[in-house]
Amino acid sequence: MSRVGMWFKMAAAFAVFSIGGPALIYYVQPTDEELFKRYNPELQRRSLEKRKERQEDFDNFVTKLKEYSRSDKPIWKAAALDEAQRKANVAEEQQRLASEIQKRREEIKQLSISAK
Fold first, then answer.
1. Cα–Cα distance for residue pair 38/44, rounded to 1 Å
2. Is 96 exposed, middle or buried (0-12, 13-18, 19+ CB in 10 A)?
3. Cα–Cα distance between 41 and 64 in angstroms, integer?
4. How far is CA 51 from CA 36, 45, 57, 98, 103, in A?
């Protein structure tokens, strides 16, 4: 009988810890709305202002993940390739803008020389 009692105690302890622990955490942890209500009014206002921007960022992130998952490569490799391509495009755009600025400076210089 002592073995059956030990098994019963162990099963009861398992039930208490595996069910009671998460239930206690769920009961104690505040919801997002409760946390938001605890903010001071300034933080609430800023949070509401940036909510749309954060949602758009998250949507863009999920869209990119979906694009990366469509490729045959692992997501981290597809993301690295996309990041490298994006950096190359940004560098090319900056170089184009720098050359355009240089051309404008030369035009202004030529106009100022010819006006004298």
1. 9
2. exposed
3. 35
4. 12, 10, 10, 36, 43
Q: Taking a C-beta distance cutoff of 8 angstroms, is the pair 52, 63 a contact?
A: no
Q: What is the pLDDT of residues 80-93, one digit of tens each?
A: 999 999 999 999 99
- Tokens representing 42 are 């300034």
Are 110 and 116 in contact by the 8 Å Cβ rule? The answer is no
Strands of 58-116 (E only): list them: none
Six token digits for residue 30? 């505040």
DSSP, collapsed to helix, strand or coil, labels residue 66 as helix
Could you tell me the pTM of the whole model?
0.50
Q: Round to whole Å and give the CA distance between 60 and 98.
A: 29
State residue 36's pLDDT score. 86
